[in-house]
Design a protein that fits this description.
EC 1.8.3.2, glycoprotein, Sulfhydryl oxidase, flavin-dependent sulfhydryl oxidase activity, 658 residues
Amino acid sequence: MAAAAGAAATAAAAAAAAPRSPGAPTAAARARRLPPLLVLLAAAAAGPGAGGAARLYRAGEDAVWVLDSGSVRGATANSSAAWLVQFYSSWCGHCIGYAPTWRALARDVRDWAAAIRVAALDCAEEENHEVCRAYDIHFYPSFRYFKAFTKDFTTGENFKGPDRELQTVRRTMIDFLQNHTDTDRPPACPPLGPIPPSDVLSLLDNRDGRYVAILFENNSSYVGREVILDLLPYENIVVKRVLDADEAFLEKLGVSSLPSCYLIYPNGTRGLMNIGKPLRSFFSSYLKSLPDVRKKLISLPEKPNKEENPEVVIWREFDRSKLYTADLESGLHYLLRVELATHRSLAGAELQTLKDFVTVLAKISGIFLINRIKWVGCQGSRPEFRGYTCSLWKLFHTLTVQAGTHPEALDGTGFEDDPQAVLQTIRRYIHTFFGCKECSEHFEEMAKESMDSVKTSDQAILWLWKKHNLVNNRLAGHLSEDPKFPKVPWPSPDLCPACHEEIKGLHSWNEGQVLLFLKQHYGSDNLVDTYAADQEDAHEGGAPPEGGEQEQGLVSPEKPQGEQRAKSLRPPSVLPPRPDLSQGLQLGLDGGHQSVSRAEGHREVEVAVPFLGMGFSSLDMSLCVVLYVASSLFLMLMYFFFRVRSKRWKVRYHRLSV
């Protein structure tokens, strides 16, 4: 994040001339806001990373090599094998859905490990944030190939397959191996290229005590190369492949169809291999089962197997009818300090998108930028479920509702009088920065289809609600769906009975009632501070805040939601007045965006104290101390210098008078 924030500062001048996206305010209206925005970016850069995340792959349980910040460089640098590494995020729905395919791929090519290995690294883990930035990972999942014997640091080669199906990835792995030169090819990997038909005659007289399997296939076939790699860890057998052999020659060997395997036995006998189907699995299984064909004792590096201490999951009771500040703050923390930090530099349209998004957040969200993650209403039954994506939807709904109910908050920003302004800002942020690329593409498709039809702020609120339900419908039953929180049309009848109707026996939405519900649900009066960072800071080490609930260890999420109530600590009120960005935008870091109920002097001091160190790293603080000491010494030296000089003048004056 520090790199991105620093780049944002250096690119400020260029941003003024950046092309304006549809729906964006003019550059002149935003130029005066740059310094405060950079203050926020600097604060975001200094904060620690997100909390621990759930891993989709387990070392010792899956065939996938599980890497982390401490092992990825050592594994891929100067390795005797090539690597295919998936950089993923455990909150990414597409990554969750793809995990079974990646596990199956790793199992399928397990015997290829001496030549190429399938690995995964979770960029959602706090310890891996920096290394994912170093490898320039912006979107999830990202697939990178690393060649064998690579001595200098490299971010790898991007996967270039037409899709990510298992067979496609497996074949691109073969292509990648063949792109190695003879000098840097993994030593355990046999030649994968075809031999000329003329060499077959010399193989027919094989007498070296090994089996020789000759696979005849056409140019487009990968079967021969797959079988060669499948037999890589086995001894007493050699596999070769031949392309486009002469028909007369094939007929002489009894080969009538492709692919076919001609087998030469150690004793010199030979013949066409008779198997049920001409498939890779049939060829490989038959050859592995031959007498005296057995696995070699290949020494592979030990898989990274960091001991995983199971986290003690604390279930926080919550009320589904409430909106929790902790969810919004945690989502903002991850958005700015983790997701945005994957971009090393920002300029032009990217920088403008960020400035616009932060402006909208600062003006109408009323939330704090905290330094840790704590899900409440966005908790999942497992750590990889819900969480960040849930908080983003809540944040986006809050922005559209607050923009509609408090349009004056956007005065002077260039966004006023534009009902699409917030939606278009969200759209550009998702398209530019959201880590799940497939998710952002789906959102962009929905936006292109109908976002331009939004003419009022109420329509903007309903547009986002409709698209959210479309996404829920598409992901219902997906592997990323939390079984304890199924994706159903929202709001459910128990939350808003008036929202649901039946017309001629078919379910129908009463959009007028839905609009009223959304304005109430995402309004400031419904925002609950229980579990929020500032509430816990005030009660750290003591009892829970008044009106809050004590956290229950390992409480089942199956508990009826009707019993899960939390009293709001925020009194019913409109959003407090927003200070102008020119007065210093810090999005709650200085206590300026707190609820009016927290305006007491001692509370302001408590909020201000942690801000003194926020935005500064330990190196910054050390430099401050060094400069302070150096300036003190300089002042002391100057003092003694002038004191001595003064005495000398006095002596000279005294002598002259005599």
